[in-house]
Amino acid sequence: MTQSIVVQVGQCGNQVGCRFWDLALREHAHVNQMGVYDEALSSFFRNVDQRGADSTGGKINALKARAVLVDMEEGVLGEILQGPLRSLFSSTQLISDVSGSGNNWAVGHHTYGLAYREQIVDQVRKAAEHCDCLQCFFLIHSMGGGTGSGLGTFVLKLLEDEFPEVCRIVTSVYPTAEDDVITSPYNSVLAMKELTEHADCVLPVDNQSLVDIVGKIQHMSNTGKPGCTIKKDCTIISGQGGVVKVEKPFDAMNNIVANLLLNITSSARFEGSLNMDLNEIAMNLVPFPRLHYLLSSLTPLYTLADVNIPPRRFVIIYLQ
Questions:
Q1: The whole model's pTM is what?
Q2: Which residue ranges does the record assign to the Tubulin/FtsZ GTPase domain (predicted)?
């Protein structure tokens, strides 16, 4: 079974990544109820024993995420280290600064990129050394901020230089037209040039679309009309059943992106007739190397609780 490494850059990237790990644990806990460290679990998690060494097979000792977390502000990373998911990460997997990038692509790309180049490469190499068969890098970042757009694309270029044979799938969250950050359009344009040059696949996510989806589901939940009652735990924005019990702002929107990544990787993590490698996505859907922006969609967004299914009617036609 192959393994993948998730690289989370910036505030948005780490918040989405936090929801991804929470929902991934929920999914594997539902499928793997025996608590056995199997091949599906090894795709994103390491099984670490009391000595800190990797353990293959058998019971789960302590799970560690195959991830590298990068942010030039301490806020989000500090919350992760103090939150319910803190056991998934060690302090060496987190790379942070204090001042931030000031919503400036050039500061994130050139200033912090050059300053933290060796540290980022070192942590990515350590994560890769724990993989038996490294298949893919997942980069999660935003396009509007300075760290996500600038440092995120710098990390993408590093991955291409250090691991040219490993597939690079990027999930980019694009800002809305009414974004309050005045430099977000410039950051997005500069970051798109780097994505076009160095990514294998890009999954663009429109922030306004996430807002519309959350608003639609919440409106359906509050209407109270017959046939419109939604199961609260069965919506795509729900985090019920995960490790994190208290939802924070933007968690509903981040759950949509996290479900997108889980659904994309499910065919590579679980055995079955539809099992496939992640590099087949680029092989089958990218006609030319630079045309690798793929449009993603999810359905269903929710499950109705009071659907009256009409009885089936059979029509028999006699041929004379």
A1: 0.89
A2: 54-272
